[in-house]
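Could you help me review a protein record that somebody else here produced? This is what I was given.
***
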Amino acid sequence: MESQKRILIVDDNETSAAIVSNMLKRNGYNTEIVRNGEEALGKIKSCQGLCYDLILMDIELGKGMDGAETAAEIQQYCDLPVVFLFAHTEEKIIGKIRSVAKYGFVAKNAGEHILITVIDMALKLHGESMRTGLYQQIVEHSMNEIYIFDPETLEFIMVNRGARENLGYTMAELANMTPLDIKPEIEAQIFRKLIEPLLKREKERLFYNTIHRRKDGSSYPVEVNLQLYSYRGKKVCMALVNDLTERRKLEEDLREREALLSAVTQSAGEAIIMLDEKGTVAFWNPAAENLFGYLQEEILGKDLHRLVVLDEQSYRAYKNSFIHFQSTGEGIYIGKNVELKAKNKAGKILDVELTLTAVKRKKSLYTIGIVRDIGERKKAEEQVYFLTITDPLTKIYNRRYFTQKLEEEIERAKRAGNKFSLIMLDIDRFKRINDSFGHNAGDEVLKSMAELVKNRNRKIDIFARWGGEEFVILLPDTTVKNAARLAEELRESLSQMDMPGAGRVTASFGVAGYCPGDNVDSLVNKADNMMYEAKAAGRNCVRFKDECV
């Protein structure tokens, strides 16, 4: 059940304050009354605004600060909605109220219904403002470059910090620019043709690689994910952009290693093996000895595949295909490069690349195989893949990979009706940690927290950094209640953990379960809303939603 909203009434008239307080209590609000602006300011400072959800402020407070001055002082400490009360209708009073009333004002004699309506609207408006601010912060501080532009004029509406810093432009400069200004040698007609499938709703998103040009003239490769959004009848394009500089460097390093490996292999000689019409070894060079560990005298005349194929099932499949090849001269691997696994004399599993050629000798078909050890290449490819799906700081999965796995889990739930849950957590007052102890300490907190959660999770759970100090956990085959219990365990363990250089920290947790009809955005939003409730409840707690509406 949602906790009662807390309202601070600031009014120097004891009778008036009591009447208003009784009205509010009848409508489910908790109230506290103070007599002047100085006392109100002291209350706010003592709890940093966390004690109250709204302030009901008399514009005229007798001695000391008036309501407008008090509200201005309070806003220096926290963002609380202020609704003004007034008893007189002089033009001067009304004018002053209008100059400061962000969340509205109401006459003291307006009646209970009007008072409650104004307060309800102010609370809703403030909630929307807080959520909008949160989304803006997420976009502004995203690890991706984010561009939002008008699909008609192509003018930028918003460009986040990561993009501005990489490009070297200020927002004021970018406000007069379009995507064409940061893409060398592209014409407006071509770009409009590119985004046309989005405008016609033929596609939901576009992926493409291009080059961005910085203010200083330098350029860098990027991967662009372009989507079209509609809000209140207005269409905007949002581009999520990954700077591919590091990835391209890794790919170039990988190509260089492969070239070096190839040169070494050529100079040492590749494994060259010839099999006769029976499938026994007729030729075996020194490089084959080195690769598989069998000396020539050990292997000649032997059934090669009985020795190097991994298991009996694979061996039978090979024998059947070999018989077919001998009778027809056709083989699915002839003339192709094939990657497969084999074992050497010591039983070690090898990644090899095989090229097969068929030759006729004395009316019999022989097979010549050139075998290359590609173990290093496979490791490098796996490393590149690992880098694309993990967060570089915490070494856990990144948001893009998590989103992909969440989409897969939703599809699985649709087919099989399985239950699963989502946990979203956010380190409390993380900015204060960075400000007080430095960003290095903040990074250590993120890494330590990630390690704690990772060690507690099951192998089937997906744990990822959502962005900044926010993390998410996908829990397959898990009810909301069980997920909430896990969240509570994690919260308690984290709160008791001594973080290097930063002391004790806490986190707020939100838990939500999959309901039929949910998609990635709706499910994440539910968990995020629960986490926001945990924040609003004082932080360092768990909130969960265990129902499908």
Summary: The first strand starts at residue 6 and ends at 10. Residues 6-139 form a domain with the Rossmann fold fold (CATH 3.40.50.2300).
